[in-house]
Amino acid sequence: MSGWGSWLKGDAPAGAAGSAPAASGSNFHAITDTTPQNALFGPLEPTDLEWTCAGGFTTETQTWYSVLDDGSFATSQIIHSAVGLWYPQVQMTFKYFNPKTGKKIWKSVNVTKFAPQTDKRSSKAAEFSVVFSSTDAGDKYSITANLDADLQLSWSFTRPKAIQGWKLGAGPKGGFSYFGSNLGSPEGYVIHRFWPVAESEGHVIAQGAAIDAKGKGMFVHAIQGMRPNLVAAKWNFANFQADDEKLGRVSGVMMEFTTTPDYGSAQDGQPTGKRESLTVNIGSIVAEGKLIAVTAATRTASAADADKSQKSNSRVTHLDKTLDQDTGYNAPQAIEYTWQGPLLDASTGKGDVDQKVEASLKVDLGKPFPSSETHGLVDKVDVLAEIPYMVRKLVNYVAGTKPYIYQTLNEATLKLRLPGKEESQVKGSLFEEHTFISG
């Protein structure tokens, strides 16, 4: 929900104000279309994790997730929103949920004196400090924060050296999907950089009690260089983490977004301005102590479920959708995630397109309404109610747009097939988000 403060009145870049650009060819350039299947893995460079703190209508986030050893869930996020104000809005959020006890902690603080530090990967504000370091164990973020009189954080996330971070495609342009017909001067962009595995440790002090933060985590650095209501109509995010007797540390991460009708492919024979939305899907699989596959696919809105794109069947499928009276959206009662991509050769960074890694996971979510019937519900977030007050005062409520984020945490089984091996069934924990923005 970090980007929603960008809906502001006033001028915006061409095509970014909410009206559909003229339809003439594609005005969206997906990184999943421009990166070959054998070159999906892009190693993270030090600059990839630097804060950009860009202006315009840019929202930048760093988010750390962990499923703790006792089965509870915790996440920290820093949100830098340049929304046309005299100064950026910067928030730090923390969420904790224990499914066994029902205990929930949620805190969002508008921080002051935020600044990236000398290495640009660390950051500091009056309320928190995030220090990036490289240790013998691997790269590490150490987070300390005083978010309230009864909430203090002191925890860290370490990426094991053997498990690489990634973006889609190598080089300085790796990972970027661009909006607008002119690539030389795009109207906006979106990018994600991942640590698919990060081990968390430390503690959280809440209401005088200590919570052990040891757990299985991940990290993502994301930037939306455009108003979020124009970037996508819906999002899906999956974070599966497990330890397996045979395969060791296992991770399945997936991020998918579907463009709004303003951006996509022009449809022949359709009225001017009519476009077909595109869905971008990226993900990765970790097993046997290493990153074994990066996956990517693009689909049109009219594509049949069985259609592959870019020779990959990676996708998110919402099943048994039914009306949620809380939100007005037809929300899924189950979700299926499918990963399919070439086996990654760690020595070359190339994928072997003749050696496929395939994985799938299905989670039963129960009924979306009432919320008491939703399995593993962490939160159902009315985004417009959560954005900062100073931003909310300036929000232009775009007609037909009412963003909601569903967050769930459930035990799940990942079915994983490696080339030349029998299928493995890995039991672990799945934190997922499915977000509806419009339509």
Summarize the structure in words.
Helices cover about 5% and strands about 55% of the residues. The model is unreliable at about 1-25 and about 390-400 (pLDDT under 50). The protein is mainly beta. Strand 19 and strand 20 form a beta hairpin. The strands form 5 sheets. Strands 1, 3, 4, 5, 6, 7, 8, 9, 10, 11, 13, 14, 15 and 16 form a 14-stranded antiparallel sheet that branches. Strands 17, 18, 21, 22, 23, 26, 27, 28, 29 and 30 form a 10-stranded antiparallel sheet that branches. It has one domain (about 5-10, about 20-439): AttH-like fold, CATH 2.40.370.10. It has helices at about 30-35, 230, 385, 390, and strands at about 30, 40-45, 60-70, 75-80, 90-95, 105-110, 115, 125, 130-135, 140-150, 150-160, 165-170, 175-180, 190-205, 210, 215-225, 235-245, 250-260, 265, 275, 280-285, 290-300, 315-320, 320-325, 330, 335-345, 350-365, 375-380, 400-415, 425-439.
- Which structural class best describes the helix and strand composition? mainly beta
In what range is the share of β-strand residues? Answer: over 45%
Straight-line distance between termini: 17 Å
Q: DSSP helix count?
A: 4
Shape: globular
Keywords: Cytoplasm
GO cellular component, one term: cytoplasm
Region (Disordered): 302-327
Subcellular location: Cytoplasm
